[in-house]
Amino acid sequence: MDLNKRPENMQRITTIELANKFIDEQIAEVRAQVGDKKVLLALSGGVDSSVVAALLIKAIGKQLVCVHVNHGLMRKNESENVIKLFKGELDANLIYVDATDRFLDLLAGVSDPEKKRKIIGAEFINVFADEARKLEDITFLAQGTIYPDILESIKQAEGKKAVKSHHNVGGLPEDLQFELVEPIKLLFKDEVRVVGEALGLPKNMVYRQPFPGPGLGVRCLGAITRDRLHALREADAILREEFDLNGLAGKVWQYFIVVPDIKSVGVKDESRYEGWPAIIRAVNTTDAMSATIEEIPYTVLHRITDRITKEVDGINRVLMDLTPKPVGTIEWE
Ligand code: XMP
Fold it and tell me: Which residue has the CA at smallest separation from atom 10 of ligand 1?
Protein backbone atom coordinates (compact mmCIF):
# COMPACT_ATOMS: atom_id res chain seq x y z
CA MET A 1 0.00 0.00 0.00
CA ASP A 2 1.43 3.38 -0.87
CA LEU A 3 0.74 5.87 1.89
CA ASN A 4 0.15 8.94 -0.25
CA LYS A 5 -2.28 11.39 1.26
CA ARG A 6 -5.49 12.45 -0.44
CA PRO A 7 -4.99 15.84 -2.09
CA GLU A 8 -6.67 18.54 -0.04
CA ASN A 9 -8.54 19.94 -3.03
CA MET A 10 -9.94 16.56 -4.11
CA GLN A 11 -13.68 16.89 -4.57
CA ARG A 12 -15.89 14.55 -2.53
CA ILE A 13 -17.87 12.15 -4.69
CA THR A 14 -21.45 12.74 -3.66
CA THR A 15 -23.43 12.31 -6.89
CA ILE A 16 -23.71 9.75 -9.68
CA GLU A 17 -22.34 12.37 -12.13
CA LEU A 18 -19.20 12.85 -10.03
CA ALA A 19 -18.92 9.08 -9.65
CA ASN A 20 -19.16 8.60 -13.42
CA LYS A 21 -16.37 11.12 -13.91
CA PHE A 22 -14.24 9.27 -11.35
CA ILE A 23 -14.99 5.94 -13.05
CA ASP A 24 -13.96 7.28 -16.48
CA GLU A 25 -10.71 8.63 -15.05
CA GLN A 26 -9.93 5.37 -13.29
CA ILE A 27 -10.71 3.27 -16.37
CA ALA A 28 -8.19 5.33 -18.34
CA GLU A 29 -5.64 5.13 -15.53
CA VAL A 30 -6.01 1.37 -15.05
CA ARG A 31 -5.76 0.70 -18.80
CA ALA A 32 -2.61 2.83 -18.97
CA GLN A 33 -1.13 1.03 -15.94
CA VAL A 34 -1.82 -2.58 -16.92
CA GLY A 35 -1.83 -2.54 -20.74
CA ASP A 36 -2.66 -6.07 -21.92
CA LYS A 37 -1.42 -7.76 -18.72
CA LYS A 38 -3.54 -9.73 -16.27
CA VAL A 39 -4.73 -8.52 -12.88
CA LEU A 40 -5.62 -10.72 -9.92
CA LEU A 41 -8.23 -9.73 -7.33
CA ALA A 42 -9.37 -11.38 -4.11
CA LEU A 43 -13.11 -10.83 -4.33
CA SER A 44 -14.70 -11.26 -0.91
CA GLY A 45 -18.06 -9.85 -1.91
CA GLY A 46 -17.66 -6.89 0.46
CA VAL A 47 -18.39 -3.40 -0.82
CA ASP A 48 -14.77 -2.43 -1.51
CA SER A 49 -13.62 -5.52 -3.40
CA SER A 50 -16.93 -5.66 -5.29
CA VAL A 51 -16.63 -2.05 -6.44
CA VAL A 52 -13.03 -2.67 -7.54
CA ALA A 53 -14.13 -5.80 -9.41
CA ALA A 54 -16.98 -4.01 -11.20
CA LEU A 55 -14.68 -1.10 -12.09
CA LEU A 56 -11.95 -3.37 -13.42
CA ILE A 57 -14.37 -5.54 -15.38
CA LYS A 58 -15.43 -2.32 -17.10
CA ALA A 59 -11.85 -1.27 -17.70
CA ILE A 60 -10.15 -4.53 -18.71
CA GLY A 61 -12.86 -7.25 -18.93
CA LYS A 62 -11.42 -10.77 -18.87
CA GLN A 63 -7.89 -9.54 -18.10
CA LEU A 64 -9.18 -9.39 -14.54
CA VAL A 65 -9.06 -12.73 -12.72
CA CYS A 66 -11.18 -12.74 -9.56
CA VAL A 67 -10.64 -15.34 -6.86
CA HIS A 68 -13.41 -15.81 -4.33
CA VAL A 69 -12.23 -17.77 -1.30
CA ASN A 70 -15.00 -19.23 0.84
CA HIS A 71 -13.34 -19.71 4.20
CA GLY A 72 -16.42 -21.42 5.58
CA LEU A 73 -17.07 -18.40 7.78
CA MET A 74 -19.31 -16.54 5.34
CA ARG A 75 -22.91 -15.63 6.11
CA LYS A 76 -25.77 -17.68 4.69
CA ASN A 77 -25.83 -17.67 0.84
CA GLU A 78 -23.03 -15.10 0.66
CA SER A 79 -20.68 -17.00 -1.64
CA GLU A 80 -23.59 -18.12 -3.82
CA ASN A 81 -24.62 -14.48 -4.26
CA VAL A 82 -21.09 -13.41 -5.21
CA ILE A 83 -20.98 -16.10 -7.88
CA LYS A 84 -24.47 -15.27 -9.15
CA LEU A 85 -23.69 -11.58 -9.53
CA PHE A 86 -20.12 -11.62 -10.82
CA LYS A 87 -20.07 -14.79 -12.86
CA GLY A 88 -23.74 -14.90 -13.80
CA GLU A 89 -24.55 -11.25 -14.44
CA LEU A 90 -21.24 -9.48 -14.99
CA ASP A 91 -19.57 -12.38 -16.82
CA ALA A 92 -16.41 -12.06 -14.71
CA ASN A 93 -13.43 -14.34 -14.97
CA LEU A 94 -14.10 -15.80 -11.51
CA ILE A 95 -12.46 -18.70 -9.70
CA TYR A 96 -14.40 -20.07 -6.72
CA VAL A 97 -12.47 -21.86 -4.00
CA ASP A 98 -14.32 -23.68 -1.26
CA ALA A 99 -11.69 -23.83 1.48
CA THR A 100 -14.10 -24.50 4.34
CA ASP A 101 -12.37 -27.68 5.51
CA ARG A 102 -8.90 -26.14 5.41
CA PHE A 103 -9.99 -23.29 7.68
CA LEU A 104 -12.20 -25.23 10.06
CA ASP A 105 -9.61 -27.98 10.52
CA LEU A 106 -6.95 -25.41 11.42
CA LEU A 107 -9.29 -23.59 13.77
CA ALA A 108 -10.47 -26.70 15.61
CA GLY A 109 -9.75 -26.36 19.31
CA VAL A 110 -8.34 -22.81 19.04
CA SER A 111 -10.12 -20.50 21.47
CA ASP A 112 -7.85 -17.46 21.74
CA PRO A 113 -9.40 -14.63 19.63
CA GLU A 114 -6.10 -13.20 18.36
CA LYS A 115 -4.81 -16.69 17.48
CA LYS A 116 -8.04 -17.33 15.56
CA ARG A 117 -7.68 -14.04 13.67
CA LYS A 118 -4.06 -14.79 12.83
CA ILE A 119 -4.89 -18.32 11.62
CA ILE A 120 -7.73 -17.04 9.42
CA GLY A 121 -5.61 -14.20 7.99
CA ALA A 122 -2.59 -16.43 7.31
CA GLU A 123 -4.64 -19.26 5.81
CA PHE A 124 -6.47 -16.80 3.60
CA ILE A 125 -3.11 -15.76 2.18
CA ASN A 126 -2.07 -19.43 1.78
CA VAL A 127 -5.22 -20.37 -0.13
CA PHE A 128 -5.05 -17.26 -2.28
CA ALA A 129 -1.34 -17.82 -2.96
CA ASP A 130 -2.03 -21.45 -3.93
CA GLU A 131 -4.55 -20.24 -6.50
CA ALA A 132 -2.26 -17.47 -7.73
CA ARG A 133 0.56 -19.99 -8.33
CA LYS A 134 -1.74 -22.05 -10.56
CA LEU A 135 -2.33 -19.03 -12.79
CA GLU A 136 0.04 -17.83 -15.46
CA ASP A 137 1.14 -14.37 -16.56
CA ILE A 138 -0.32 -12.42 -13.68
CA THR A 139 1.51 -9.13 -13.28
CA PHE A 140 -0.80 -7.09 -11.09
CA LEU A 141 -2.73 -7.51 -7.86
CA ALA A 142 -5.82 -5.33 -7.39
CA GLN A 143 -6.89 -4.40 -3.89
CA GLY A 144 -9.95 -2.73 -2.44
CA THR A 145 -7.83 -0.49 -0.25
CA ILE A 146 -9.78 2.62 0.75
CA TYR A 147 -8.60 5.87 2.33
CA PRO A 148 -9.37 4.94 5.97
CA ASP A 149 -7.05 1.89 5.50
CA ILE A 150 -4.31 4.27 4.44
CA LEU A 151 -4.97 6.57 7.39
CA GLU A 152 -4.88 3.53 9.74
CA SER A 153 -1.54 2.41 8.27
CA ILE A 154 -0.13 5.91 8.62
CA LYS A 155 -1.20 5.82 12.29
CA GLN A 156 0.46 2.43 12.80
CA ALA A 157 3.60 3.62 11.04
CA GLU A 158 3.66 6.40 13.63
CA GLY A 159 3.72 3.76 16.38
CA LYS A 160 0.09 3.78 17.58
CA LYS A 161 -1.22 0.40 18.73
CA ALA A 162 -4.01 -1.41 16.88
CA VAL A 163 -6.81 -2.83 19.05
CA LYS A 164 -7.34 -5.90 16.83
CA SER A 165 -5.34 -7.38 13.99
CA HIS A 166 -7.50 -6.72 10.91
CA HIS A 167 -6.84 -8.85 7.90
CA ASN A 168 -6.45 -8.07 4.19
CA VAL A 169 -4.51 -9.62 1.32
CA GLY A 170 -1.25 -7.87 2.17
CA GLY A 171 1.73 -10.04 3.04
CA LEU A 172 1.81 -12.45 0.10
CA PRO A 173 4.91 -14.68 -0.05
CA GLU A 174 8.13 -13.51 -1.76
CA ASP A 175 7.57 -15.52 -4.94
CA LEU A 176 4.27 -13.74 -5.47
CA GLN A 177 5.13 -10.10 -5.53
CA PHE A 178 2.79 -8.20 -7.81
CA GLU A 179 2.49 -4.59 -8.75
CA LEU A 180 -0.57 -3.12 -7.01
CA VAL A 181 -3.69 -1.69 -8.62
CA GLU A 182 -5.69 0.26 -6.04
CA PRO A 183 -8.29 2.33 -7.88
CA ILE A 184 -10.35 3.41 -4.84
CA LYS A 185 -7.50 4.07 -2.42
CA LEU A 186 -8.28 7.77 -2.05
CA LEU A 187 -11.99 7.30 -1.43
CA PHE A 188 -13.96 7.30 1.79
CA LYS A 189 -16.60 4.60 2.26
CA ASP A 190 -19.57 6.81 1.36
CA GLU A 191 -17.84 7.71 -1.90
CA VAL A 192 -17.14 4.04 -2.66
CA ARG A 193 -20.86 3.36 -2.31
CA VAL A 194 -21.80 6.12 -4.77
CA VAL A 195 -19.24 4.74 -7.23
CA GLY A 196 -20.74 1.26 -6.72
CA GLU A 197 -24.20 2.58 -7.53
CA ALA A 198 -22.90 4.35 -10.62
CA LEU A 199 -21.35 1.07 -11.72
CA GLY A 200 -24.79 -0.54 -11.50
CA LEU A 201 -24.11 -2.82 -8.54
CA PRO A 202 -27.28 -3.80 -6.64
CA LYS A 203 -28.24 -1.42 -3.82
CA ASN A 204 -28.28 -4.20 -1.21
CA MET A 205 -24.65 -4.93 -2.00
CA VAL A 206 -23.50 -1.31 -2.15
CA TYR A 207 -25.23 -0.37 1.10
CA ARG A 208 -24.66 -3.63 2.91
CA GLN A 209 -23.38 -3.53 6.45
CA PRO A 210 -19.68 -4.10 7.06
CA PHE A 211 -18.59 -7.70 7.58
CA PRO A 212 -15.19 -8.42 9.13
CA GLY A 213 -12.53 -10.32 7.19
CA PRO A 214 -12.51 -13.24 9.68
CA GLY A 215 -16.27 -13.43 9.15
CA LEU A 216 -18.43 -15.50 11.46
CA GLY A 217 -15.18 -16.81 12.97
CA VAL A 218 -15.10 -13.88 15.42
CA ARG A 219 -18.79 -14.30 16.24
CA CYS A 220 -18.67 -18.03 16.98
CA LEU A 221 -16.86 -17.33 20.23
CA GLY A 222 -13.99 -19.46 21.49
CA ALA A 223 -13.14 -22.71 19.72
CA ILE A 224 -15.32 -22.95 16.60
CA THR A 225 -17.35 -26.10 16.06
CA ARG A 226 -19.29 -26.85 12.90
CA ASP A 227 -22.61 -27.32 14.69
CA ARG A 228 -22.38 -24.02 16.60
CA LEU A 229 -21.17 -22.21 13.47
CA HIS A 230 -24.17 -23.59 11.60
CA ALA A 231 -26.55 -22.41 14.34
CA LEU A 232 -24.94 -18.95 14.27
CA ARG A 233 -25.28 -18.72 10.47
CA GLU A 234 -28.96 -19.67 10.55
CA ALA A 235 -29.77 -17.33 13.45
CA ASP A 236 -27.91 -14.47 11.74
CA ALA A 237 -29.88 -15.04 8.53
CA ILE A 238 -33.15 -14.77 10.50
CA LEU A 239 -31.99 -11.56 12.19
CA ARG A 240 -31.08 -10.01 8.83
CA GLU A 241 -34.33 -11.12 7.24
CA GLU A 242 -36.38 -9.58 10.06
CA PHE A 243 -34.37 -6.34 9.96
CA ASP A 244 -35.11 -6.14 6.23
CA LEU A 245 -38.79 -6.89 6.66
CA ASN A 246 -39.17 -4.33 9.45
CA GLY A 247 -37.38 -1.44 7.76
CA LEU A 248 -34.41 -1.54 10.16
CA ALA A 249 -31.76 -2.61 7.65
CA GLY A 250 -31.03 0.90 6.41
CA LYS A 251 -31.35 2.48 9.86
CA VAL A 252 -28.92 0.34 11.83
CA TRP A 253 -25.27 0.45 10.81
CA GLN A 254 -24.28 -3.06 11.84
CA TYR A 255 -26.34 -5.91 13.28
CA PHE A 256 -25.48 -9.52 13.77
CA ILE A 257 -25.64 -12.54 16.04
CA VAL A 258 -22.92 -13.81 18.34
CA VAL A 259 -23.00 -17.33 19.77
CA PRO A 260 -20.81 -18.04 22.82
CA ASP A 261 -19.56 -21.45 23.80
CA ILE A 262 -21.87 -21.91 26.77
CA LYS A 263 -25.06 -23.84 27.19
CA SER A 264 -28.02 -23.29 29.45
CA VAL A 265 -30.91 -25.51 30.38
CA GLY A 266 -34.17 -25.09 28.53
CA VAL A 267 -37.28 -27.08 27.82
CA LYS A 268 -38.71 -28.21 24.49
CA ASP A 269 -41.47 -30.72 23.78
CA GLU A 270 -41.70 -31.25 27.53
CA SER A 271 -38.08 -32.43 27.70
CA ARG A 272 -34.85 -30.90 28.93
CA TYR A 273 -33.24 -29.00 26.06
CA GLU A 274 -29.72 -27.66 26.50
CA GLY A 275 -28.72 -25.03 24.00
CA TRP A 276 -26.54 -22.01 23.26
CA PRO A 277 -27.78 -18.44 23.58
CA ALA A 278 -27.90 -16.25 20.45
CA ILE A 279 -26.82 -12.72 21.31
CA ILE A 280 -28.10 -9.81 19.18
CA ARG A 281 -25.68 -6.93 18.58
CA ALA A 282 -27.11 -3.88 16.77
CA VAL A 283 -25.09 -0.66 16.76
CA ASN A 284 -24.87 2.69 15.09
CA THR A 285 -21.65 4.53 14.42
CA THR A 286 -20.11 6.89 11.92
CA ASP A 287 -16.51 5.71 12.00
CA ALA A 288 -16.55 2.40 13.95
CA MET A 289 -14.26 3.98 16.56
CA SER A 290 -17.19 4.46 18.91
CA ALA A 291 -20.70 3.07 18.65
CA THR A 292 -24.10 3.53 20.26
CA ILE A 293 -26.87 1.02 20.82
CA GLU A 294 -29.80 1.17 18.47
CA GLU A 295 -33.24 0.75 20.03
CA ILE A 296 -35.08 -2.09 18.38
CA PRO A 297 -38.87 -2.27 18.86
CA TYR A 298 -39.86 -5.02 21.28
CA THR A 299 -42.32 -6.49 18.78
CA VAL A 300 -39.43 -7.10 16.38
CA LEU A 301 -37.24 -8.54 19.15
CA HIS A 302 -40.04 -10.90 20.19
CA ARG A 303 -40.49 -12.09 16.62
CA ILE A 304 -36.74 -12.65 16.16
CA THR A 305 -36.57 -14.55 19.46
CA ASP A 306 -39.55 -16.66 18.52
CA ARG A 307 -38.18 -17.52 15.09
CA ILE A 308 -34.62 -18.24 16.19
CA THR A 309 -35.63 -20.50 19.08
CA LYS A 310 -38.15 -22.36 16.90
CA GLU A 311 -36.16 -22.58 13.66
CA VAL A 312 -32.53 -22.95 14.73
CA ASP A 313 -31.35 -26.24 16.17
CA GLY A 314 -29.25 -25.83 19.28
CA ILE A 315 -30.33 -22.30 20.29
CA ASN A 316 -32.62 -22.08 23.31
CA ARG A 317 -32.33 -18.40 24.34
CA VAL A 318 -31.97 -15.01 22.66
CA LEU A 319 -30.21 -12.14 24.46
CA MET A 320 -29.47 -8.53 23.55
CA ASP A 321 -26.09 -6.83 24.01
CA LEU A 322 -26.68 -3.26 25.22
CA THR A 323 -23.02 -2.24 25.51
CA PRO A 324 -21.81 0.84 23.63
CA LYS A 325 -18.26 1.15 22.27
CA PRO A 326 -16.33 1.97 24.33
CA VAL A 327 -16.35 -0.16 26.42
CA GLY A 328 -17.37 -3.12 24.28
CA THR A 329 -15.84 -3.34 20.81
CA ILE A 330 -18.41 -3.92 18.05
CA GLU A 331 -17.29 -7.51 17.45
CA TRP A 332 -16.93 -9.74 20.49
CA GLU A 333 -13.51 -11.05 19.46
P1 XMP B 1 -14.42 -3.51 16.51
O2 XMP B 1 -14.82 -4.91 16.91
O3 XMP B 1 -12.93 -3.31 16.52
O4 XMP B 1 -14.88 -3.37 15.00
O5 XMP B 1 -15.16 -2.47 17.29
C6 XMP B 1 -14.93 -2.16 14.29
C7 XMP B 1 -15.43 -2.46 12.89
O8 XMP B 1 -14.44 -3.21 12.17
C9 XMP B 1 -14.97 -4.44 11.73
N10 XMP B 1 -13.92 -5.45 11.84
C11 XMP B 1 -13.17 -5.86 10.80
N12 XMP B 1 -13.19 -5.52 9.51
N13 XMP B 1 -11.42 -7.02 9.07
C14 XMP B 1 -12.34 -6.12 8.65
O15 XMP B 1 -12.35 -5.82 7.45
C16 XMP B 1 -11.34 -7.42 10.36
O17 XMP B 1 -10.51 -8.25 10.71
C18 XMP B 1 -12.26 -6.80 11.27
N19 XMP B 1 -12.48 -6.93 12.61
C20 XMP B 1 -13.49 -6.08 12.93
C21 XMP B 1 -16.16 -4.71 12.65
O22 XMP B 1 -17.10 -5.59 12.05
C23 XMP B 1 -16.69 -3.33 12.86
O24 XMP B 1 -17.46 -2.90 11.76
Answer: 212
Which domain, by its residues, includes 232? 219-320
329 assigned to some structural domain? no
Model pLDDT for residues 6-43, shown as the tens digit of each residue: 999 999 999 999 999 999 999 999 999 999 999 999 99
How far is ligand 1, taken at its centre, from the CA of residue 177, in Å?
27
Are 307 and 169 found together in one domain? Answer: no
The total domain count for the chain is: 2
**pLDDT, position 167:** 53
Q: What torsion, rounded to 10 degrees, do the Cα atoms 134, 139, 143, 148 define?
A: 140
Spatial strand order in the sheet of 93-98: 93-98, 64-70, 38-42, 138-142, 179-181
Residues of the chain with pLDDT under 50: none
* 48 vs 251: CA distance, rounded Å: 21
Q: Which atom of ligand 1 is nearest to the CA of 121?
A: 17
Residue ending a domain, choose from 187, 211, 235: 211
